Known about the structure:
Number of helices: 8
Strand order of the largest sheet: 5-4-1-8-11-9-10
CATH class: Alpha Beta
Radius of gyration: 20 Å
Low-confidence stretches: none
Strand content: 15-25%
Number of strands: 11
Bound molecules: zinc ion
CATH topology: Aminopeptidase
Mean pLDDT: 95
Structural class: alpha/beta
Number of domains: 1
Largest sheet: 7 strands, mixed
Distance between the termini: 47 Å
Amino acid sequence: MKKTLRFLIVLFTCTLTVQCAQQQMRRQVRESRTVVLDIGHYYAPGRGGQGARTPDASQGGALEECEFWYKYAGEVKKAIEQAGYKCVVINRGDTPADPTLAACAKETGVLHVKTPQPTAIYLSRHHPKRMAVGILSADYALDWKPAAVIFLHLNSDSDTWRTSYKGAFYCNQVGVPMATTMAEHMNRTLFNQSMPNGGFPCGVIIRTDGRRGGGDWLNTCNDSWVPAIITEIAFLSNPQHARYLNTPANARRFARAIGEGAVRYLRNR
Ligand SMILES: [Zn+2]
């Protein structure tokens, strides 16, 4: 009987300690005023950005997602900073060899994680059961004790032109309210208005499968109670989206809408 009682007291104390630590982590996230933006993929010298590309240059020019975000992450950052939050922009590789992109990186203040092998799978330092290509970015983002992390990407579902509209903000469990607010903002300000989307709204999809693209970036953030979003809302294989994003004024509008959506969430959390 005594033994059982002692066991129960120990169990109760452990549960309380774990709950206390979790509450503290959650409070830290809620009180944080820092947003980390991760420019997706990396720039390989001589080969360019290593993300998705348009099938060709026919819709106003060739686009690649990593290069796109080197040019426009600064617009997302501005929208966040103008609302009074701190914004840190990172990339898992090194400064692009391309002089135009290098100048953009400097102007935006991109911090380069310089992953030794950008194509290799690494274990997370913060949550070692999580592993992925590009996880060093997620680790570095968590080092900032952020309110949220946004992984800047563009989608593609074909090597040839195909008009797909079902783009979404992929998010972790704790990021659902943020992704929902960001999607609502997209729908209110951009989708099916200046940006054609065939009448489809911007989606929200929870991604927990670590094996799929970016799943463990989201999971490792979830383990720290940090809302995390991958912006897969536009398709480079959709000629309408490619044409839209090839106009610099539209690309800036698109980037700003991502930042503004994040701010709407942060102000109301
Ligand atoms: Zn991508």
